[in-house]
Amino acid sequence: MSILSKAKNTIRKATGRPGPRLLTVKSAWRLTPNMIRVTFAGPELAGFPEGCEGGNCKLMLPEPAEGRDAFADRIVNGPMPVRRTYTVRNFRRDMQELDIDFVAHGDNGPASRWASHAEAGDFLGFMGPSSPKVTSFDADWYLVAADPSAIPVAAATLEAMPRDAKGVAVFEVTAAEDRQDIDAPEGIQMHWLVHPKPEMPSVQQSDLIRSLDWPSGRVQTCIAGESGLIRTLRAFLHQDMGLPRSDTYISGYWKIGLVEDEHQKMKRAEG
């Protein structure tokens, strides 16, 4: 038994939760010009939970040229690898395949750097997944909004909805070619906005959402993206529109000018 397998068993016995997995890349390609899809496959996905699309996970990233055994030992004994939060996009149990989508920033950031160079046989560490962000669909109308960082959770939510669901989905992407095919219900009006400079603030999503003819009945949301925009939308939904917090999944996934560790520290400080 490998050192990582022993650690997994210890963690499962102590907490009831699965320990880290060491996943192997089957393929990696440009889903769109600014999005990379990496498919993992292999026996390490045995026992992976079904219906987890839209749940988040922690990816542990090896250093360039780091060997598999050395990396596995580091997960268990430290120093801990760099970790980043991502979303499960697809899991195919019959094929033991898992898809994770990465926004392509070139070598600017450890996760984008890893994904940009990923090829069959590469590996990383995986913890999770959590439950999907929206698990109950019983509203009269749905509002979904995302920038590139949150397209996986938004897309998974749309694909899990009842086929007779109605609402609006707003996606903001870096280029028109970044539009994706998403199996959303026919009653969801899809809007694709282009914001070519994601390092600069944008009000396109906020402006469109504020301009909507607000429906009667119960509304549920799945909204995620840059924290400055999320703060504005949260105030609009909770204060102006009076939506209960229990019906509004809305989360800042990143913030302009901050790396993930700094952003998470900021979110904890804000409560």
TrEMBL record:
InterPro entries: FAD-bd_FR_type, FNR_nucleotide-bd, Riboflavin_synthase-like_b-brl, SIP_FAD-bd, SIP_fam, SIP_rossman_dom. Signal peptide: none annotated. Belongs to the SIP oxidoreductase family. Residues 18-136 form the FAD-binding FR-type domain. This is Siderophore-interacting protein.
